[in-house]
Amino acid sequence: QICLSLVKLLFYLAHSPLGSIVLLDFQPRQFVMVDGNLKVTDMDDASTEELSCKEDNDCTLDFPTKSFPLKCSVVGKCEGINEKKNLFNAYRYFFTYLLPHSAPPALRPLLSDILNATGDLRYGINETLRAFEKVLHLYKSGLYLQKRPLLLKDYISLKGFRTVEGGDYKCWPSYSHLGCLLSVHSAEEAAHICNSQSQCQSFIVTQQRTWTGRPLASFQSSWTDLIPDTNAVVYIKRSASSGERL
């Protein structure tokens, strides 16, 4: 969410009515999240000036660990230097820390491609935004789950009940520090997650939603502490209990 919001912001800066805007003091402390959107807190160090040049050798974009040769345009300006400076700063201050973690395994190669392409400045801001929007579409639609075996049939569903949330085993990256609360596309994906965790014996898909509209599922190591809840369904591994006991 943070990275996508940042890319949308940089896309606007690259195509602003004032021209391409560069953030000269690009640091994480210069940004805040407001209603799920990243915003710049200080525009004092923003500039629309692009480096003047006479030849391509005048257009090297230097960072502490990397340098990038750029082209000198016919009007004597280094082409895209403001956009590329913003994008590489986004890569080194945000993408490298946030993108490699917590995504579903099927989407990690796509995020790795974005990370590598922005780190080498092979992508401009337009390509970067398209790549992020593709990942978001796959994530929200559940298309990344295709061609997987169906596992929900291995679970018994109990309508009108839920398990006690929190205080059970913990997992990463959980939305709750008290237990294992993860984003899922459906109960079928939750069944895959439960099967992949040795402690998991049951789960409930909660009414809580993430910023993408995906529900949160709570995973438990037992199913004995059930609470009546007309809006809930608890899923229990068939191997954890026989039908007679239920």
UniProtKB/TrEMBL annotation:
One of its GO terms (biological process) is skeletal system development. InterPro entries: FAM69_kinase_dom, PKDCC. GO terms for cellular component: extracellular region. One of its GO terms (molecular function) is non-membrane spanning protein tyrosine kinase activity. The keyword tRNA processing does not apply. It holds the Pfam family PIP49_C. Keywords: Kinase, Signal, Transferase. Residues 2-116 form the FAM69 protein-kinase domain. The keyword 4Fe-4S does not apply. Residues 1-19 form the signal peptide. This is PKDCC kinase. The gene is Pkdcc_1.
